Write a sequence for this structure.
């Protein structure tokens, strides 16, 4: 089962709390603290720009938790007050802006007064003299993240691309087949299955990528006319039990790669563990959205959405 990733940020003085939060959450999530120095999970790396590393982190993780403690004394309107470290507030704004308010939480000392700008951000208060209250705050954040939907709106177009693909290909083809069946090599088929193959990675030329997949199967191309527009797709040359197997590869997913390329800092815009993890997450969101649309429209008995690795085993 896929484990979602959480980033925890704090001041240097509150690393003990950050580690405590990690111990609580890592049963259900992959958790990384800002100062982790294991190469595979490190957020800040040697000879790297801190801001660039933070930008990468905000794209690599599914959720963010920032811990606000009484670190700095400032004067506001003639009164001295305690507030969180500036870098913690900056990271909170960055992660909230990148991930959305429902995927970012601020665990904050109850003695700290927050500006009205923080309204709308998920806040969990704790008593600095009571560690149990901190644990409860962490658990609240974990529950919120566990209930978070996979396909919420974000900077990436995966959900939108899935909707466009559904409206322009899946829905017309399913409607046509249900109403008319399909003719292949002069044989009329009343029943058809549509196997949508979602790759494990996205090549520069997705059309060529699909052709390579088709070469591993015995297939041919078929075209139908629906609402005055031709829809082209591939079928397996050999139908079994009177059911024609249709295969399609959503080349529209190339838009995900374009989005990542534009959002990631230049030196991170390449195939790497971080890049691959972001791409995998967005492909999963594409699949989740597509499956929900298929179910909502009653096409679930016709449509099978599969990752390329699954197809190798089953087709």
């Amino acid at each position: 089962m896929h484990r979602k990733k959480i980033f925890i940020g704090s001041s240097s003085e509150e690393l003990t709390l950050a580690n405590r939060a990690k111990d609580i959450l890592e049963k259900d999530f992959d958790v990384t603290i800002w100062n982790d120095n294991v190469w595979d999970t490190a957020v800040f790396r040697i000879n790297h720009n801190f801001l660039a590393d933070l930008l990468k982190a905000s794209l690599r993780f599914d959720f963010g938790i920032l811990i606000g403690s009484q670190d700095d004394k400032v004067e506001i309107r003639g009164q001295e007050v305690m507030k969180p470290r500036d870098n913690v507030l900056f990271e909170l704004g960055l992660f909230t802006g990148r991930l959305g308010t429902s995927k970012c939480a601020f665990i904050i000392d109850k003695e700290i007064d927050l500006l009205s700008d923080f309204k709308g951000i998920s806040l969990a208060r704790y008593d600095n003299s009571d560690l149990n209250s901190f644990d409860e705050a962490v658990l609240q954040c974990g529950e919120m993240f566990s209930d978070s939907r996979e396909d919420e709106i974000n900077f990436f177009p995966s959900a939108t691309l899935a909707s466009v693909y559904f409206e322009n290909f899946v829905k017309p083809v399913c409607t046509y087949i249900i109403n008319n069946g399909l003719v292949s090599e002069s044989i009329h088929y009343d029943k058809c299955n549509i196997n949508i193959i979602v790759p494990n990675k996205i090549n520069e030329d997705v059309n060529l990528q699909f052709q390579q997949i088709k070469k591993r199967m015995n297939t041919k191309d078929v075209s139908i006319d629906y609402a005055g527009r031709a829809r082209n797709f591939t079928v397996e040359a050999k139908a079994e039990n009177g059911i024609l197997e249709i295969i399609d590869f959503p080349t529209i997913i190339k838009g995900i790669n374009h989005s990542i390329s534009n959002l990631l800092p230049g030196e991170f815009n390449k195939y790497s563990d971080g890049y691959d993890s972001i791409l995998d997450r967005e492909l999963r969101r594409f699949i989740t959205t597509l499956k929900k649309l298929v179910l909502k429209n009653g096409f679930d008995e016709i449509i099978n959405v599969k990752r390329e690795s699954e197809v190798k085993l089953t087709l």
User: Anything to note?
Assistant: Residues 158-314 form one domain. Residues 172 and 229 are 10 Å apart (CA to CA).
